[in-house]
Amino acid sequence: MRLAPAIACDDVNHRHSRGPLANERLAAAPENPLAQLFRPSADRRIRLVLWGLPVGLTLVGGVGYALSRSGWSTGVGWSPAQPIPFSHDHHVGGAGLDCRYCHETVERAAFAGLPATETCMHCHAHLFPDAPLLAPVRDSWADDRPIRWQRVHDLPDFVYFDHSIHVHEGVACETCHGRVDRMPRIRQVADLSMKWCLDCHRDPTPHLRPRDAVFVMGWRPEPDAPPVILEDETHVSCSECHR
Amino acid sequence: MTRGGPDERWIDGDHDVAAINDCVVDTVQSPRTRNVWLVALAAAALGLGALALAVFGVFWWYVGIWGVRTPVYWGIAITNFVWWVGIAHAGTLISAILLLANQTWRRSINRFAEAMTLFAIACAGMFPLLHLGRPEFFYWLLPYPNTYGYWPQFLSPLVWDFFAVATYGMVSLVFWYVGLVPDLATMRDRSTGLRARVYGVFALGWRGSARHWERHQFAYLLLAGLATTLVVSVHTVVSFDFAVAQLPGWHATVFPPYFVAGAIFSGFALVLTLLIPVRVWLGLRDLITDRHLDQCAKLMLTAGLVVAYGYAAELYFGWYSGDPHERELLASHLHGRSAPLFWTVIGLNVALPQSLWWRAARRSTAWLFVLSIGVNLGMWLERWLIVITSLEHGLLPTTGGHYWPTFWDWLTLAGTFGFFAFFMLLFIRFVPVIAMSELRELVGDRRPEGA
């Protein structure tokens, strides 16, 4: 494509070009028939635009793709400030508390449950009863006002998710929430995208455990143990989650 | 068409190459039509504003503002969609199929019909997208790498539709543009200042060298071949939206050819409706002669006969299937609730076009104009009959329903008329409405040396 020399740059070429659509500018334009419409740089600029469009669009697409999977968009690694710097590392990894001690409705409700202040006070009425760090717990106890924990794993409101069925079918806490027993401050581990849900729903077997291993952290299957197979068929229809 | 007879000549008067350019270029630059054009453009801009309002309404309140209710999920939005896609078929038929069939008369009207195609496709595409319920997520129809872990449902004709219409729009645009390049160069050479530079950019440095022409013709033929398959495929896929479903009134094997013929039928009708006034307004009666209108009318009659066959086949197979639900719908069409609509459609699309068997009717501009408007209306009502009446009827009396469009439905339809008119007017004012480069070949050897 050569945009610049519209006419009469080189005589030979021009004479050849007097086909059915010979340049009428020669005959028609009254003032200066040899005036050039475009400067020689026009070609270069147009090429730049034409190349820039696909390259630019590809770049935008690539950046969008990367951003949509980054923690900035999905919230992986997100760890909001809590009213009390509660450490799962200390309570689960160190003291060896079972998940269900605090998240007590996980086996029978959609919501796993957050501990009532009373649950904390079971121990902390006696253990470190004067620690300044625990002042908000004692205030909550005294004023009869719940502690305002910040939710970390927050699914969209248009998704119906039920903890109990997952736990009953052999999906472990660790499968979605990671090694909570090593987290001084709880953070989001999985990206919670719909693809992440579907990857497991389409092929659950590699993610399932025996019932007695669901609340265990750092569990590894026995090398010769048979895989846990979901007896039900897979649940992947839209209304499974979008009710 | 007889060879060598008076019908062979497709241009009236003594025009040579330069005169044809003058004729066509003048339509673009003429001060004569300027004031009327401005008034018409202002009126069309009102329509465009109406469309903007209608689209805003759908984005703000969603499709609940339309008249669609269970069980009539598809209201006139889908009627309009099918109608506009149909309109869009004439352009490609005239450009591609008639090009391959070596019909020289197409050269006077193909540019105009292709422009119609482009803007009609744009109008058509709006409706299914607005109809999505959440139109801002229209891109979910595209198979792009998303975080949802799913792709579009490729088993659904609605997804085929998206690809068929998008492909058709793109190929039509490229075809139209490639054909336009030599004419844009003519415009460039006949303009000055900024206009010349704008035309110059879009003319891609066209010099009219033999090599340019050779490559241009090759590309044009290739695109014509591609576009030819699309003429058939697009409305076939649109018909699958219905034919694949089990609903009485939709579930018929005759739908694909019947829809394609209907599309060409309505497309030619709109070509006539628009060309008849436009050729007078722009002073192009020497180039778009009564014989051109005659040819369009013949093709319209042919397509209309296939449509009539479609109606007959639908009725016959509805009866022959023995299916009680199909037969109930037929009874409703013939002498029941939907009979007034059905017989209006038959009158407009089957009975009236039979007049085109007579040469006198085909040569009467006034009759063609009236008839073409009748066919446009008839085809729109036909799509109402297919889309809405079938849904209203349903399978059981208890699943029936009633539909009537709301203000917003009508506003969207009126808005697309405004949109279409607005861009057609821009096209008329800035782009040569006739393919000069192709038309010049028809007078190439003729020299007006004193007759």
From TrEMBL, chain B:
Coiled-coil positions: none
Pfam families in the cross-refs: NrfD
Chief location: membrane
Bilayer topology annotation: Multi-pass membrane protein
Keywords: Cell membrane, Membrane, Transmembrane, Transmembrane helix
InterPro entries assigned to the protein according to its UniProt record, in alphabetical order: NrfD-like (IPR005614)
Keyword Mitochondrion: no
Subcellular location: Cell membrane
Superkingdom of origin organism: Bacteria
Transmembrane segments: 36-61, 81-100, 112-134, 154-178, 218-238, 258-278, 299-320, 340-358, 365-387, 407-431
Family the UniProt entry places it in: Belongs to the NrfD family.
Protein name per Swiss-Prot or TrEMBL: Polysulfide reductase NrfD
Source organism: Nannocystis punicea
Recorded name of the encoding gene: nrfD
